[in-house]
Amino acid sequence: MNRHLLIIEDDPRVADFLSRGLKAEGYTVEVARTGPQGLELARDERVSLVILDLMLPGLNGLDLCQTLRAEGGQVPILMLTAMSTTEDKVKGLRLGADDYLTKPFDFEELLARITALLRRGREQRAVATTLQVADLVLDRERMQVWRADAPLTLTAKELAFLELLMSAPGRLFSRERILANVWGVHVDPLTNIVDVYVRRLRAKIDDGHPLPLLKTVRGLGYRLDDSPV
């Protein structure tokens, strides 16, 4: 089970308390002290849960949560808030948080909330054996792909590339992230391998269809969605 937690908290005392306690429970823990740093770390596929404070420098917790969800990020988010009104809590949940705890909180309750969110995430991932964007469908168990009900023939690397993009429709993936997730490297060994595979995928999933799904965002990366541009 993935036990990689991200704490986004600017109070060093709270962050240190949480980090030490969760590490003692066997979790791998990262800490971010600002909103922008937390948002960048939360995009990492290794993170299995985010513990998010609301009052953060640079980008507050509500905006961070909303941005992450708008990008397609599905990581569970547990909000920590000193605001105890129902309206404040409902706003956080509507913006994409999965649960919340009001400060001060009991550490045992925090552990219980984390366990429940991780279990729920595993159950949801187990159900999601099929990915779909518009009329493009990927069966993750059989690793087969169809576009408009017509089967497509993809290589293993093309399938891995496509699965990454389809796992978060609309999310922008940088070359570096694609290389790390598909090829397991952090530098491009062949200088243009990502471009080559983008061309191959585009030829197989988009050619002959009125709506292209694989989009290039010049200088930033690639995304897969059914938007007109």
TrEMBL record:
Database matches in PROSITE patterns: OMPR_PHOB, RESPONSE_REGULATORY
SMART domains, per database record: REC, Trans_reg_C
Signal peptide: none
DNA-binding region range list: 128-226
Record domain Response regulatory: where: 4-118
Modified sites of kind 4-aspartylphosphate: D53
KW Oxidoreductase (keyword) present: no
InterPro entries: CheY-like_superfamily, OmpR/PhoB-type_DNA-bd, Sig_transdc_resp-reg_receiver, WalR-like, WH-like_DNA-bd_sf
Pfam families xrefs: Response_reg (PF00072), Trans_reg_C (PF00486)
Domain OmpR/PhoB-type: 128-226
Keywords: DNA-binding, Phosphoprotein, Transcription, Transcription regulation, Two-component regulatory system
UniProt superkingdom: Bacteria
Protein name listed in UniProt: Response regulator transcription factor
Organism this protein belongs to: Roseateles amylovorans
